[in-house]
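> forwarded from #structure-qc
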């Protein structure tokens, strides 16, 4: 069950990063921001 809590913590991290990127990139580059977040997450995992 520790994996589940890790997943939710990771999900919160992604949500925060998406908001940060979306704000910084004026939202029009939101797809790029999500791609960066996902790529970073994959490298981390």
């Amino acid at each position: 069950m520790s994996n589940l809590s890790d997943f939710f913590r990771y999900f919160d991290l992604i949500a925060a990063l998406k908001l940060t990127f979306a704000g910084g990139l004026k939202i029009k580059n939101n797809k790029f921001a999500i791609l960066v977040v996902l790529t970073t997450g994959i490298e981390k995992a």
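QC bot note: The two ends are 18 Å apart (CA to CA). Residues 20 and 38 are 14 Å apart (CA to CA).
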